[in-house]
Amino acid sequence: MKLTGSSVIENRSRTLLTVLGIAIGIASVVLLTSLGQGVNRYVTNMFTQFGTNLIEITPGKVSTMGGSLGAINTVRPLSIDDALALQNRPHVEAVVTFSMGNAEVEANRRQRRTTVYGTNSDFPDAYSFDIKTGTFLPDDNPHAPRPTVVLGSLVKDELFGDDNALGEFVRIGGSRFRIVGVMESKGQMLGVDLDDTVYLPVSRAMELFNRESLMQISLVHSQDAPVYEVVSIIERLFKSRHGSDDITITTQQQMMDVLGSILNVLTAAVGGLGGISLIVGGIGILTIMTIAVAERTNEIGLFRALGATKRQILMLFLGEAVVMATLGGLVGLVVGVGGARLIRLAAPGIPVHTPWNYMLFAVLVAVVIGLIAGVLPARRAASLLPLEALRAE
Q1: Which of 148, 240, 283, 303 has CA 20 to 30 A from 339's CA?
Q2: Total structural domains in the chain?
Q3: Domain match, 204 and 312 both
């Protein structure tokens, strides 16, 4: 071990080059996987901020079935009555109806085009949205004499500035709506501004956009309820109401599984890009150790003449390769983690996360690369005959 250490120290230039090659590879892997993991956590948090016990119901069956459907191949629209029928089912805590479109919103001599959501009174609780001022939409009543609307925070600021908007009227698609509430700012999700919206009663939105079917029904079930049981209840209800299985049910877990698989591929891809640098570093160790064996042939012969075994010579050169790779791994780890923290400080908007298991794995990979790259040169050194090694120039 002392001999290995002294050899690494004496050949500083060679050691520095080898350590630098491995360090660059490890730093690249740590930094890129940190970015990948950061994006993974960011997107996951974006989706789970709305809760983890959601089930989405959309019209039409997204699956492949055999046989000729013929005349029964019809899809009934999702209706408000379907949503009402779900409300008294076991384990159901909230049912949210959705219709969506885009329209001009006019008020206070200003106008802007924005996203219009038709929904019901369960929306804020189901999706963890807070109301800044006023109230949210009342229970849906298509015959209400005064149609109501709730503004997203950005729409309110654009149309009314700092003025109080409660009780004022906005015109949407030619109809007047009274403002009953303003939402707390929610920010953006995957590039979609959740504050640049207005909320109408779902029946008014369907009428405004000439829709016969709801776009979606979202159901919130109790946390302790078995998901498969809730799904079975929904399927039985809609079969009895529609006469066939003509809806698609997507659980939150299914959505997270699909999202997770996509993000894991992304993380693996960026990690693979950094792995290319590691391969280059491994080739560097192989090259430098091969040169070292050629340069130290006389030294190897002397060791063998003094009684050193092949195993000891093998371990000497393998030890040097592993020590240099480990040093490179540790330096690369420090540089990678430091770079990730600098990115987090310089650009807080960029999600960066470095898991400890990735860091330990990176150092382990460096050690393994040192072993693999050092095997051939070490075996060549151990196989040299003492007399031939001593005679070598």
Answers
A1: 283
A2: 2
A3: no
